[in-house]
Amino acid sequence: xxxxxxxTARVGFEVELLAPAGxxxxxxxxxxxxxxxxxxxxxxxxxxxxxLVPGMGQFWHLTxxxxxxxxxxxxxxxxxxxxxxxxxIRRDQLAARCGETGHQxxxxxxxxxxxxxxxxxxxxxxxxxxxxxxTGARTRFEHALDGIARVFDVPVETVGAVRRVRDRxxxxxxxxxxxxxxxxxxxxxxxxxxxxxHAEALEALLGPARALGFLVPVEAAVHLHLDAGPFRSxxxxxxxxxxxxxxxxxxxxxxxxxxHCVRTGALPEALTTVVDTESRSGADWPRLQEAxxxxxxTKYLDVNLTxxxxxxxxxxxxxxxxLPGMLDGEDITGRAAIVQALLERCLDPxxxxxxxxxxxxxxxxxxLLADARARQLQRIRPALA
Length: 385
Known about the structure:
The protein is α+β, with helices and mostly antiparallel strands. The chain has helices at 25-35, 87-96, 125-135, 146-152, 198-211, 234-246, 248-255, 269-280, 285-293, 329-347, 361-384, and strands at 11-18, 39-50, 58-69, 75-80, 118-122, 157-159, 162-166, 172-178, 186-190, 221-227, 303-304, 317-324. It has eleven helices and twelve strands. Strands 1, 2, 3, 4, 5, 6, 7, 8, 9, 10, 11 and 12 form a twelve-stranded antiparallel beta sheet that branches. Helix 6 (234-246) packs across helix 10 (329-347). Mean pLDDT is 90; it is low at 100-104.
């Protein structure tokens, strides 16, 4: 990886880790809180997962997470599940089922049930949020969904190990199930935006993780969230699209993108076509926004641009999703500084050049990065004089 300048942008981080067998993300939350004289608060984390029901694309779900506050009540991070982390858990569970004497009580094979660990599912995000608001993060499983059942004035049904609420016409509202064995181990560290001292702030979270034996899982990635506001213009947005399409292979090579990472992918070719067409026609930003909205972009690409398609997003960031899993603050901020320099180059209204033909992708990206660094220096030189 090339030498980088310090990270100076305001950045939020998502770092995917895995607790060792017998431990959990809650154990890490308690360790971090202890070291900071702070506290841990159980929360319910919203995410989505593919549906096994024919004709239904996905379910939304709430799973247990833990917000860590320092001694002043300031949030340090939230630790949540990540459903893409599965391979290490599957492998460990298969190994524990080898039949050797002593494995009969192995927590990987026969974990003690945690009555506090359950998830709530719905095919409607609005109903899911209502279920979460009326259930509460500290509710026991036997009372899960009691609140939303009262809202609809219907009973909570018990079907085997599932609690379910349907409306009076029989339409599903939400259901609750126990968390599958091993799901307490995935640990995505989600930080609030960090303005300075990024490596030190990350080490305050990752140092305890290393001490507890946390690992970088097979599918791991690190996601960066940077302020989206500056990219709400036709030239800036077009340059971001050119960066993540024309230089995709180079970005993956220089950043060391994990080939086993899921929920990433190339930006659609149709996006490049729309951006080029609208840029040449002199479209303003609202017109380009509307044109891109028709493409149905999702967040599960190399870069998540969905916040830019509305002026009132719930989280106003560009999310870069192609950094590899890492367990060291300096490693993370070094790669984040590369992303920062390239995105700052995208803010220059000069169109980003396409990679020269015949030049290896990594070399082309490094040439672009050198140019971006030079432009950074030009911008800060007056302040240094």
